[in-house]
Design brief:
mainly alpha
């Protein structure tokens, strides 16, 4: 019976074969890429929120404003 290695497991095994300094460099690169992806996601969410506000599909206010609005839906 052969064990099927997933792509994720394969990548981990390959990383383990790298030197410690190469692993540290790889970790730094991946962290920076994840930070950039998250920044892009935040920017896109901001653009979508601004567009929704311009179209009247969103509003702003305090937490108390939100509570009052939600209470209005209860009856």
């Amino acid at each position: 019976m052969t064990m099927h290695v997933t792509p994720f497991q394969d990548v981990l095994e390959r990383i383990e074969r790298l030197s410690i300094s190469d692993q540290e460099a790889l970790l730094e690169i991946v962290q920076k890429r994840l930070i950039e992806l998250r920044r892009q996601e935040i920017a896109e969410n901001a653009r979508a929120t601004i567009q929704a506000f311009r179209e009247g599909r969103a509003s702003y206010g305090t937490v108390d404003d939100l509570r009052r609005e939600l209470e209005g839906f209860e009856g």
